[in-house]
């Protein structure tokens, strides 16, 4: 790692923090550390990044989306690039009175019985929804923005080598098709934690040994990313609601706005809305508070 410009892809989490600390400790030159600021970070994560900058003396380069994520998610007009036909809801049954001929009505009625839904057709160039809505495994528009912004930053640096903090116990992540495609297109990568055999647990210990504890975030979560990420586990959502109620409130507000927007919405996670989760968790809390039945 000598003649090239090492750029640390910094997420703020334990692995990339350990990577940065170890590179500095080993005297490996670091050109810069780049962090994509989604605006959806835990406030404790933002505090951690500020602390790390002071501790290392290294300015972490923050890149931001061109358009703030809440605007993309809830306000942007999304224009159709193809003719789209979307089911918009149940269609009323055909009215017999509208027909002179009983046979026609029967035909319409049979068609309606086979497919009792109404459809909306959108032409190319027409707005078909407002806001991308919550990201999902098939529509990770947030990741697309993030990768695009970080790639643009790295491309500006001569002989850049992107140093990624995948831990030794997640080496499979290096096989991602997107990474392989970009490597074929000339991007250079290095995975120093894997080279050094540092797994996730060791990465966290290294950070703690330097006094970083993220204000307890890792006591609540195994992985820390955007607080409102729909790809997180349901258990993490429950934890978020319990320990970070203000962030949960924000998610509830956004969820409502998304649902009220025109266009098709797939909910927050597998067609379940944040408000559905709220009802479920509140019911769980209520159940836990019930007095235990005592057999006398
Ligand atoms: S953590 Fe989730 S919400 Fe944040 S950028 Fe990644 S996929 Fe999107």
CATH C-level category of the largest domain: Alpha Beta
Task: Pick out the low-confidence regions.
Answer: none
Largest sheet: 5 strands, parallel
Q: How many domains in all?
A: 2
Which geometry do the CA atoms define? Answer: globular
The CATH homologous superfamily of the largest domain is named HUPs
Q: How large, in whole angstroms, is the Cα Rg?
A: 25 Å
Number of helices: 12
- β-strand percent reads 5-15%
What is the structural class? alpha/beta
CATH A-level architecture of the largest domain: 3-Layer(aba) Sandwich
Short description:
The protein folds into two domains: 5-71 and 133-281, 3-Layer(aba) Sandwich (Rossmann fold), CATH 3.40.50; 84-122, no CATH class. The protein contains twelve helices and nine strands. The chain has helices spanning 14-25, 43-56, 69-74, 102-114, 141-155, 177-184, 192-195, 200-209, 217-220, 234-243, 245-260, 274-289; strands at 5-9, 32-36, 60-63, 77-79, 84-90, 117-122, 127-130, 160-164, 189-190.
How is the secondary structure organized here?
Elements: E1 5-9, H1 14-25, E2 32-36, H2 43-56, E3 60-63, H3 69-74, E4 77-79, E5 84-90, H4 102-114, E6 117-122, E7 127-130, H5 141-155, E8 160-164, H6 177-184, E9 189-190, H7 192-195, H8 200-209, H9 217-220, H10 234-243, H11 245-260, H12 274-289
Parallel strand pairs: 1-2, 1-8, 2-3, 8-9
Antiparallel strand pairs: 4-7, 5-6
Helix pairs in contact: 1-8, 10-11
């Amino acid at each position: 790692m000598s003649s090239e410009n090492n750029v640390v892809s910094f997420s703020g989490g334990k692995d990339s923090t350990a990577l940065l600390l170890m590179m500095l400790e080993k005297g490996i030159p670091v050109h810069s550390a780049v962090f994509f600021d989604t605006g959806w970070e835990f406030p404790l994560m933002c505090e951690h990044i500020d602390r790390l900058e002071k501790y290392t003396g290294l300015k972490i380069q923050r890149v931001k989306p061109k358009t703030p994520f809440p605007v993309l998610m809830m306000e942007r007009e999304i224009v159709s690039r193809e003719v789209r036909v979307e089911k918009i809801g149940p269609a009323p049954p055909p009215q017999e009175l509208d027909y002179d001929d009983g046979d026609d009505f029967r035909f319409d009625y049979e068609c309606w019985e086979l497919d009792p839904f109404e459809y909306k057709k959108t032409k190319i160039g027409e707005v078909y929804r407002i806001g991308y809505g919550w990201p999902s495994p098939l529509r990770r528009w947030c990741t697309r923005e993030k990768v695009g912004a970080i790639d643009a930053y790295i491309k500006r640096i001569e002989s850049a080598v992107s140093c990624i903090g995948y831990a030794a116990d997640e080496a499979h992540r290096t096989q991602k098709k997107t990474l392989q495609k970009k490597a074929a297109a000339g991007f250079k990568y290095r995975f120093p934690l894997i080279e050094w055999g540092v797994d996730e647990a060791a990465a966290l210990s290294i950070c703690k040994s330097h006094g970083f504890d993220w204000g307890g975030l890792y006591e609540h979560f195994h992985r820390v990313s955007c607080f409102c990420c729909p790809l997180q586990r349901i258990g993490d959502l429950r934890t978020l609601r319990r320990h970070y109620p203000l962030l949960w409130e924000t998610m509830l507000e956004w969820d409502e706005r998304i649902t009220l927007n025109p266009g098709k919405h797939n909910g927050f996670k597998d067609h379940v809305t944040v408000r559905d989760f709220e009802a479920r968790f509140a019911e769980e809390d209520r159940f836990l508070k019930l007095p235990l039945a005592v057999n006398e």
